[in-house]
Amino acid sequence: METLLFFQQEVIPAFLKGLRVSILLILPSAVIGLVIGILTGALRAYGNRGVRLVADVYVTLFRGIPLVVQLFMWYFGLPYLNIYLNPFAASVIGFSLCSGAYHSEYVRGAFLSIKRGQLSAALALGFTKLQMVTTILLPQGFRRALPGCGNELIYLVKYSSLAYMITCIELTGEAKILASMTFRYTEIFFAVGLVYLVLITIASWLLQLVEDRFTVPGFEHHKL
Amino acid sequence: MADECILKVENIKKAFGKRQVLKGVSLSIRKGELKVLMGPSGAGKSTLLQCINFLVTPDEGEVWLEGSHINRARKHDLYAYRQQVGMIFQDFNLFDHLSALDNIEIGLARVKGLDKKAARERAMVELERVGLSDHAHHYPAQLSGGQKQRVSIARALAMDPKVMLLDEPTSALDPELIGEVLAVIRNLVANGMTMIMATHQIGFSRALADEIIFMEDGQVVEQGPPVKMFSDAVCERTRAFCAKISELYGEAF
């Protein structure tokens, strides 16, 4: 009874507050990350050597350095250059850039898996380069990249739990504060784990809907 | 008007790195003619066809369509020219994410600017012409090789090309499926389509080609009407090649 009351009066309000921040972090990071990923992926698949090199360096750095360290750099490091980001902005930048680096790898693979002959066929019909990209390359690349990028979006939900390390208090941050005030670590972190599980279940379900919507024969991801 | 030269290609040269793949090839074709390119692999047949519509940019050489010179440096001219030259590939190159009907429709809608309804109607007509109206809503992954090639022919025809370039259209097909594709091409010949076709189908070429062009090592070695080419080619190499492939496909003369 006492636990129930504790959850009702303390945990749930704190979680709701944190959840709101988490979602505010996840949504823009997902969109920006995806845009960065598609652009970088396209450059790495089709760009000239110079462009590819720049994109490769970006990916190497942002995949190679732990996300927490990246966040510290944005939030604690940039002030040395007289650039001051608030915790929220630093988190979104950190998540987007890291996520974009991973997305670009899925996108690159997707583009490279498109048979080149189809591009010749489009040009032979009189398509402009731009029409070829928008009508052939992107629709096919999108379908091929979807499972990988979806996976990355799910990671992003969990990345967001690092934002509290740079004082952007989201769901995990609220949980940690509450836990250290009440010393009820077990219940609170168990509950917070459940909330992420629900979030990710919803996200996977949405991704599955998108995948089903765009599946055509020849692009299905075989389910057993 | 029947003598009018539709497409003229002059002195096409192309090198990939150090390898000179085309060493100055010229040809011209009149309305309604079928010219067949033959020769061993590596002779430059594919590269020549791709140079003709600039999918591969030739290092040297010029192309005229109906007497007007194609300025390939001008994007607008290039795209307009390609619309008038249909291309059929060895491995079909259908757009994998589009149904058979949409494969045909997309060029009409995007390139020709037809509205949705008109594009759909025209696409359906072309599918019927190649005998695939029942498969309109099937995707490439659901079609056989022969059906895919017929869709790709329909896709090219829908653009009302003045010339068609066919790059070994039956080489990737099972023997059983070759017939249905050749039947469609035979139909085009009967309807007066102008075509340049790389193929090793001897029986087909003998019966229908106006001229056989034998290529080797980036050059035209010999050319002439099929009767002459198959029975008394001047060049030793041509004779040897023709004997080899007729032996292979079991077609007696």
Taking all Cα atoms into account, the compactness measure Rg of chain B is: 18 Å
Q: What's the CATH architecture name of chain B?
A: 3-Layer(aba) Sandwich
Q: In percent, how helical is the residue content of chain B?
A: 25-40%
User: What is the CATH topology of chain A?
Assistant: MetI-like fold
Average pLDDT confidence of chain A is 92
| C-alpha-based Rg of chain A, rounded | 21 Å
- Beta-strand residue fraction of chain A: under 5%
Distance from first to last alpha carbon of chain B: 34 Å
Low-confidence stretches of chain A: none
Low-confidence stretches of chain B: none
Write the layout of secondary structure elements.
The complex is a heterodimer of chains A (224) and B (253).
Chain A: H1 2-46, H2 49-64, H3 67-77, H4 87-112, H5 116-125, H6 129-159, H7 171-182, H8 185-214
Chain B: E1 5-16, E2 19-30, E3 34-38, H1 45-52, E4 60-65, E5 68-69, H2 75-83, E6 85-88, H3 100-110, H4 116-129, H5 145-158, E7 163-167, H6 175-190, E8 195-198, H7 202-208, E9 211-216, E10 219-224, H8 226-232, H9 236-249
Parallel strand pairs in B: 3-8, 3-9, 6-7, 7-8
Antiparallel strand pairs in B: 1-2, 1-4, 4-5, 9-10
Helix pairs in contact in B: 3-4, 3-5, 4-5, 5-6, 8-9
Tell me what the structure shows.
The complex is a heterodimer of chains A (224) and B (253). Chain A is mainly α and 224 residues long. Chain A has helices at residues 2-46, 49-64, 67-77, 87-112, 116-125, 129-159, 171-182, 185-214. In chain A, helix 1 packs across helix 4 (87-112) and helix 2 (49-64) packs across helix 4. The radius of gyration of chain A is 21 Å and the shape is flat. With 253 residues, chain B is an alpha/beta fold. Chain B has a single domain (5-94, 161-249), classed as Rossmann fold, CATH 3.40.50.300. Chain B has 9 helices and 10 strands. Chain B has helices at 45-52, 75-83, 100-110, 116-129, 145-158, 175-190, 202-208, 226-232, 236-249; strands at residues 5-16, 19-30, 34-38, 60-65, 68-69, 85-88, 163-167, 195-198, 211-216, 219-224. In chain B, a hairpin with a 2-residue loop joins strand 4 (60-65) and strand 5 (68-69). Chains A and B meet through helix 5 and helix 6 of A and helix 2, strand 6, helix 3 and helix 5 of B.
